[in-house]
Amino acid sequence: MGLNWIYNKQDFTEDLIGDNYGFVYQITNLTNGKKYIGKKFFYSTKTKQVKGKKKRYKSFSDWQTYYGSSDLLKQDVIQYGKESFLRVILHLCQSKGECGYLEAKEQFLNNVLESDEYYNTWIMCRIRKSHIKDYNEKLQRHSGRDRKS
Fold it and tell me: pTM value?
């Protein structure tokens, strides 16, 4: 198994990011089947002093080498090795709010807190309808196509 992120059954590379803000993912431990669902942003905002003023700038996050925020998962990555994990992107997201919403949705749909199958130990989200406006419009466009077919 490769060490890369997989999206639509293909390796996901930096040139496929486009205008996406981040992604929702599932990491699977191939030795014991245990999974983790989370989100990751492609960029982070940093500040630096320029001529006495703070300037904000965008820089790439560590998304390519990221293996989740769960301490239990991180311990297993050390124990079993990165090659024992499958990293799959479930959703590409165009905003921070969309990432948060789809992460929580996947976590609830998969009952991550109710099952020992998952490394997840908590779900945290704070999302307004306005945060996922673009996502809702995308869903409406797709459901309109389905009805016409």
Answer: 0.83
